[in-house]
């Protein structure tokens, strides 16, 4: 009964439409991340699920139950915000126990739950510390514990890790996933950080400008982005997109990349879709799905920068519309001053319609 159905959901603030006709079902026990840049409508969607904002149009159902007119406190959802809300004059134990006590839970059960949640969130040694003596990292962990201890069937988290430091964020990603598995909650997680979404979510709903762009498993949105926005937004760095046109060659169908020459022949799945069309397309390949090759064996372009970042090296090539990046293992070398030849893995290539931005295959 804890599936969340969003039907034709629209939210307007005056003349401004913050959310345009969102349709999404989050299954019972599923972890879905709402991912997108600042201002794309993630929090607005979340606030409507929580009952803090009312939809301008459309419906929200929890299972079969229509949430129209159901106030926040009656929705049975747990909510954690970016800015933790905890009682600083209380100890960690008192903070964790507060909710269950308010609900009249017997003391033995409260103690059991506090013990279990503290263990899960690694708060056990800190239980008797006063909250005002603790770091932001720990406070956010307490805030998550305070909501989680009520074992809500639906748990909503809005950028809960954005104020904590990077090392702690990595730890919390694992813990939150663990928490969700343990309680089998339906979890909706708002973030602009693709790493959080990719590592924790069963499915990711990618949003931009109030429009749901794509919903899929992390690997689906990475491998098969539905459009240019998702292709660029997912991945680090995002997908390379070179303008070109399909063209017949004696080796088969290729993409004529203008000043960069032509690609290798397209695999059958793409040749099949593109044969006979001559419209402008974007030739997409991920920086990590390409290698440097010998001259004549790929796309030649001047090297503009080389970034060495530990285990990987990012080579920047070309400029303007012809700019691209290739991620190499450290044992491969790129000559900073010269030009290099990029050979994309043709089986992983995606083609997009240049005008609409939609994936063609
Ligand atoms: P962020 O991560 O920055 O919060 P977001 O994707 O969560 O981004 P929302 O907070 O949902 O974005 O906001 C979507 C758009 O709606 C933004 O342009 C925002 O300025 C606008 N907006 C949100 N709340 C209101 C409001 N109460 N009144 C007017 N405009 C609003």
Protein model, in words:
- With 361 residues, the chain is an alpha+beta fold.
- It folds into two domains: 4-232, Rossmann fold (3-Layer(aba) Sandwich); 235-353, Nucleic acid-binding proteins (OB fold (Dihydrolipoamide Acetyltransferase, E2P)).
- Helices cover 25% and strands 33% of the residues.
- The protein contains nine helices and 19 strands.
- It has helices at 42-50, 92-102, 107-120, 136-148, 166-183, 194-200, 218-223, 228-233, 268-274; strands spanning 4-13, 16-26, 31-35, 57-62, 65-66, 77-80, 154-158, 186-191, 203-208, 211-216, 240-249, 252-256, 281-285, 290-293, 299-309, 312-317, 324-329, 339-344, 350-353.
- The strands form four sheets. It has a six-stranded mixed β-sheet, with helices on both faces. The chain has a five-stranded antiparallel β-sheet with strand order 14-18-15-16-17, with no helix packed on it.
- β9 (203-208) and β10 (211-216) form a beta hairpin.
- Bound molecules: adenosine-5'-triphosphate.
- Adenosine-5'-triphosphate (ATP) binds at residues 13, 16, 18, 36, 38-44, 192.
Quick summary of this structure?
This protein has 361 residues and is of the alpha+beta class.
SSE arrangement:
Layout: E1 4-13, E2 16-26, E3 31-35, H1 42-50, E4 57-62, E5 65-66, E6 77-80, H2 92-102, H3 107-120, H4 136-148, E7 154-158, H5 166-183, E8 186-191, H6 194-200, E9 203-208, E10 211-216, H7 218-223, H8 228-233, E11 240-249, E12 252-256, H9 268-274, E13 281-285, E14 290-293, E15 299-309, E16 312-317, E17 324-329, E18 339-344, E19 350-353
Parallel strand pairs: 3-8, 3-9, 6-7, 7-8
Antiparallel strand pairs: 1-2, 1-4, 4-5, 9-10, 11-12, 11-13, 13-19, 14-18, 15-16, 15-18, 16-17
Helix pairs in contact: 2-3, 2-4
The protein binds adenosine-5'-triphosphate.
């Amino acid at each position: 009964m804890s599936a969340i159905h969003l039907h034709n959901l629209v939210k307007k603030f005056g003349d401004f439409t913050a959310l345009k006709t969102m349709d999404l079902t989050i299954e019972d026990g599923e972890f879905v991340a709402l991912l997108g840049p600042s201002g794309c409508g993630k929090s607005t969607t979340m606030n409507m699920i929580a009952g803090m904002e009312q939809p301008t149009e459309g419906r929200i159902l929890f299972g079969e139950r229509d949430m129209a007119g159901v106030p926040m406190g009656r929705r049975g959802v747990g909510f954690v915000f970016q800015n933790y809300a905890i009682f600083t004059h209380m100890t960690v134990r008192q903070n964790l126990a507060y909710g269950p006590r308010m609900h009249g839970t017997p003391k033995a059960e409260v103690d059991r739950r506090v013990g279990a949640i503290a263990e899960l969130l690694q708060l056990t040694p800190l239980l008797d510390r006063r909250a005002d003596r603790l770091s932001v990292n720990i406070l956010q962990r307490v805030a998550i514990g305070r909501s989680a201890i009520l074992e809500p069937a639906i748990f909503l988290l809005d950028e809960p890790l954005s104020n904590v430091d990077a090392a702690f964020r990595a730890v919390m990603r694992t813990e939150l996933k663990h928490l969700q598995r343990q309680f089998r909650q339906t979890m909706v997680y708002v973030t602009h950080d693709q790493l959080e979404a990719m590592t924790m979510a069963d499915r990711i709903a990618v949003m931009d400008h109030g429009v749901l762009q794509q919903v899929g498993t992390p690997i689906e949105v990475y491998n098969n982005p539905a459009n240019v926005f998702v292709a660029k937004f997912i991945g680090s760095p995002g997908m390379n997109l070179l303008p070109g046109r399909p063209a017949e060659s004696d080796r088969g169908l290729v993409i004529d990349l203008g000043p960069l020459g032509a690609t290798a022949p397209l695999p059958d799945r793409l040749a099949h879709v593109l044969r006979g069309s001559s419209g402008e397309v974007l030739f997409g390949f991920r920086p990590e799905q390409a290698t440097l090759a010998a001259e004549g064996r790929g796309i030649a372009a001047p090297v503009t920068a080389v970034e060495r970042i530990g285990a990987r090296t990012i080579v920047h090539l070309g400029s303007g519309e012809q700019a691209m990046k290739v991620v190499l293992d450290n044992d491969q070398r790129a000559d900073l001053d010269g030009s290099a030849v990029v050979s994309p893995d043709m089986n992983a290539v995606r083609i997009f319609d240049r005008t609409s931005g939609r994936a063609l295959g």
